[in-house]
Structure formats: C-alpha cells, structure tokens
C-alpha cells in the first residue's frame, strides 16, 4: 500500500515540476504594424478609398432558390417548381400526345443504338458496340516551360 501511495505522490510531484518548469510564459515577439498604403507608396496619383465596396455573399442555395422563383415574390409555387420538368418532358414527348412511350423516353439511347447498328440487323457486334462508348474530354495538359540545360562543371 505504501508503494502505491509513494508512486502516486511521485507522479504528482513530476506533474507539478513539469508545470512549473515548462509553463508558457515565454514572451512573444511583437511585430510592428504594417505601413499604411498611400497613393505615393502605391505608385498611383489618386487617393485610395478607405473601404472598398463589398460584393454580396449569396449562397449556392439562395442562387438555386432564385432560379426557381420566376416572379421574384420570395415564394416558389408548384407551377414554378415544376416548370423545368415540364420543359424536359415536352422535349421527350416527340409526338405531343401528352404521354411518354418507352421509345420516347429512351429516344437518345435508341438513336444511339440505331446509329451504331451499321449492319441494320438489330444487333451490335463488338466493333459496333465500341462506337457507343462515352466520348471523354481529354485531360487538359499544363504547358510547362522546358527544363534548363544542366550547368557545365569543370
């Protein structure tokens, strides 16, 4: 039991010594304030404005809300909300009957299939199927300057 109490006491003594020796009262070097920019130091002849105009900070959600709120009354009606969907639906409804058949709904896919089916046999072989792959944009390469020639030593 005495060993346990001696261990606890020595641990507390070490913690107290660590706090005493390594306390963070070190002086922080204070830098002088940066010089004020004036027209003469900026290299221009006109005086600078004290407060530049600030742009409005609109969030992505506020911009999205404004796209839907067509009459700008601060509210989105059901018709305003569905307007973009109606336009997309109208594009798909090619015969204008107000109903989408499967072929109308899958128009892009069926057109892609018909274009790829060169043999007009209703099937795609491996070469025809390869033409249906999504065309990806090539990665933009950064034009780096050429490396300097190695320096001659000697």
TrEMBL record:
InterPro entries for the chain = EF-hand-dom_pair, EF_Hand_1_Ca_BS, EF_hand_dom
Segments of skewed composition (Pro residues)? 145-154
Keyword list (alphabetical) reads: Kinase, Transferase
Instruction: Give a yes or no for keyword Membrane in this entry.
Output: no
Pfam assignment, any one: EF-hand_5
Q: Where is the composition biased (Basic and acidic residues)?
A: 58-72
GO MF annotation: an example: kinase activity
Q: Where is the EF-hand domain?
A: 56-91
Annotated spans, Disordered: 33-72, 132-154
Please give the superkingdom of this protein's source.
Answer: Bacteria
Cross-referenced Gene3D superfamilies: EF-hand (1.10.238.10)
Protein name, UniProt field: Histidine kinase
> Which organism encodes this protein?
Sphingomonas hankookensis
């Amino acid at each position: 039991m005495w060993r346990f109490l001696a261990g606890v006491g020595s641990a507390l003594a070490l913690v107290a010594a660590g706090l005493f020796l390594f306390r963070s009262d070190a002086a922080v070097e204070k830098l002088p304030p940066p010089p004020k920019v004036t027209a003469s130091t900026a290299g221009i002849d006109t005086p600078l404005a004290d407060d530049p105009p600030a742009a409005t900070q609109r969030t992505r959600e506020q911009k999205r809300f404004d796209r839907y709120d067509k009459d700008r009354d601060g509210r989105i009606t059901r018709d305003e909300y569905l307007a973009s969907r109606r336009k997309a639906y109208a594009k798909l409804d090619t015969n204008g009957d107000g109903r989408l058949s499967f072929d109308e709904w899958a128009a892009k896919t069926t057109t892609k299939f018909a274009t790829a089916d060169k043999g007009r046999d209703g099937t795609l072989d491996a070469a025809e199927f390869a033409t249906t792959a999504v065309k990806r944009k090539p990665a933009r390469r950064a034009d780096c300057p050429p490396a300097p020639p190695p320096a001659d030593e000697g």
